[in-house]
Write a structure and sequence with these properties.
Radius of gyration: 19 Å
CATH superfamily: Creatininase
Structural class: alpha/beta
CATH architecture: 3-Layer(aba) Sandwich
Number of helices: 10
Largest sheet: 4 strands, parallel
Shape: globular
Number of domains: 1
Helix content: 40-55%
Length: about 260
């Protein structure tokens, strides 16, 4: 089995060897958010970290600890998935208010999520997260890396992530940085979603033990709660997830090779 590629588990000499061979740091970014009854609550970050590990094993480099915290809590499934929610990947059967059902299934109230979003707003929405990411990139640079690949696994993170990269550069950051997102390989076959066929297929390819489609109602006439996109009960496959991984690797390849010595 391949040796671990995650910084926090590596001994100094092993980390140094990996860094010298490929001075690239990867970092998965995500949030804690509902992803259906069949997927884990930390899917976005788990997914991004697993993809980072896949790329590090494929090309070299070191994976930094993933980030779950500090984002603006007003843009999560527990609040966003109302009947008026719009996205390129939304299906007609997704068009209803999911939010109260999600809260009830979590043993919480929608008001609790609203109150947290308001507190997050008082902290400047994405300002806290962006500052945290700028400091994180500075620390990664300090650890001797020359390039970084950031993988935001939650769609609302993408714009703040790119802003944080620009702030890092404006403040004198020296590392070359790539923000790698699911938009980098979206086409007729691969369409991003939320806990639906695509994201669930990707999880089946990288973390199969964390997916349980049997938790979903077998009655296909009943919609899935908090699932936006094609129905995972009928469209999910490990093969689709593996193809997505291959496209991730292809999207990152030029950047990685450019930053590997020799």
């Amino acid at each position: 089995m391949e040796s671990n590629v995650e910084y926090q588990y590596l001994r100094p000499q092993d980390m140094i060897a990996r860094r010298e061979a490929a001075p690239i740091a990867y970092m998965g970014l995500g949030v804690l958010e509902w992803h259906g009854l069949h997927n884990p609550l930390g899917l976005d970050t788990i997914k991004a970290n697993a993809i980072a590990c896949y790329l590090a094993r494929e090309y070299g480099g070191v994976v930094m600890p993933p980030q779950y915290w500090g984002e603006y809590r007003g843009q999560i499934a527990e609040l966003d998935f109302v009947e008026s929610f719009e996205a390129d990947f939304i299906q007609p059967e997704n068009k209803f208010d999911h939010t109260h059902s999600i809260s009830e299934l979590m043993g919480l109230t929608k008001e609790a999520f609203i109150n947290d979003a308001e507190k997050s707003f008082e902290y400047g929405e994405w300002e806290l997260w962006e500052k945290l990411m700028v400091r994180t990139m500075c620390q990664i640079e300090t650890l001797g890396f020359k390039a970084m690949i950031l993988l935001p696994g939650h769609f609302p993170l993408i714009a703040p992530c790119k802003k944080a990269v620009q702030r890092y550069r404006d403040e004198g950051g020296l590392c070359d940085v790539l923000v790698l997102t699911e938009f980098d390989f979206t086409d007729d076959e691969f369409v991003g979603d939320h806990a639906a066929a695509f994201e669930t297929s990707l999880m089946m390819a990288i973390c199969p033990d964390l997916v349980d489609l049997n938790k979903l109602d077998p009655d296909l006439s009943k919609p899935n709660i908090g699932v936006i996109g094609q129905d995972p009960r009928t469209h999910t496959s490990k093969d689709l997830g593996q193809k997505a991984l291959a496209k991730f690797a292809a999207s990152a390849a030029d950047f990685i090779h450019k930053n590997i010595p020799g």
